[in-house]
Amino acid sequence: MPFVHVSLRAGKPEAYRQAIFDNVYRALRETFNVPEDDQFMILTEHEAANFRYSPSYMNIARSDDLVYIQMTANNTRDLDQKKALFQRLVQLLGEDPGIRPEDVFINLVEVVKENWSFGHGQAQYA
Known about the structure:
Blueprint: E1 3-9, H1 14-32, E2 41-46, E3 67-74, H2 79-95, E4 104-111
Parallel strand pairs: 1-2, 3-4
Antiparallel strand pairs: 1-3
């Protein structure tokens, strides 16, 4: 049950933003075995003054099309699954909406299962 927060500079069309949602979900389904209809994602757009990044950190040439993708997920996946997710996500976003691999910044935050409440004030995994 990942929770995904995507951040990018303002100005991209709706189809571009929806392609990000669709391909994040597809990559999660294919690599993290996320159940069907398990889609909890938000996307925030930022004006240039409110969106900062290094154009060259770790010798990666980033552009203003940089997309931050932060995922919070259970700490149940192994390193191979994480690598597969990162690679598949970059591949899919390159295909649609056409984001360069250098412009996909992914941060995975792992939590224990009891840290989730899906509603009703209950800890469904506890």
